[in-house]
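User: Here's a protein and a ligand (zinc ion). What would the complex look like?
Assistant: Let me lay out the input and then the predicted complex.
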Amino acid sequence: MAAVIPAVSTISSRIIRILGCNPGIMTLQGTNTYIVGTGKRRILIDTGDSDVPQYINHLRSILTHEGIDLAHIFITHWHHDHIGGLGDILNDIKEKTKHCQIWKYPGGKNLDNINKSIVIESLKDGQEFAVEGATLRVVHTPGHTEDHVVFHLVEDNVVFSGDCILGEGTAVFEDLYDYMQSLREIANLQPKLIMPGHGNVIHNPAEKINFYINHRMEREQQIMDVLNQDKSQTFKENDLVQMIYTNLPEHLVKAAENNVNHHLVKLLKEKKVKKMNDKWQISEHTFVRSF
Ligand SMILES: [Zn+2]
């Protein structure tokens, strides 16, 4: 059982975490949002969901209590539990967000739900923002979504990982190839701590990222093993599911097929497999190399 995340926590002299108060299957205890910096003007990372007055109240009272306002709001990616609260924050906490700039990496879907009058500036990979006590560097980390970014807090060597890495369990993704690259990119930063979009602070980032990578690679190896057994044979996704997953309950078959498909698409990008008429086969390239 995961440790309970309080509604508001001071994590360090530079980081205050405010829970989005939107618990759920996908959001765990809710979305973590973070206020970063030490001065009068700070940065907010992510905004939780829309229509959660409890969250807005917590955020407002922290801003008031600390006597601070927001210079920037950063959105890690387009999912509603990260961008949804943006309109409410700007509307309900006007006095603290008057001169605030909003930033997000381009791309994503469902952005029409966001009030058209809100100007969202485009983040760039490698861009740096500084407020008193905090320098945040933007790292584009597609995979969970194409527009996903994480933020590297240079002073503390901490990464705010959005949904790329979670405090508990493993993350879902749109594109496994990109996702694995992004995990490696975060690993290369060698952060001391990770502040995830959901779940508790991660104190062992290297171990956690390795677990994420290995978890995916094991499944991939199983798929490659099946394809390698008979290199002339072609397989449907469902054939692979039947051979790899044992005792899989009927209601999880679709999810397993989806997962196998993600791996196959990644392997296709790496030219390790080929696809013909909805069937998959080891590529000649891999075939030759394995001798
Ligand atoms: Zn999320």
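Summary: The pocket of zinc ion is lined by residues 27, 31, 79, 81-82, 163, 197-198 (CB under 6 Å).
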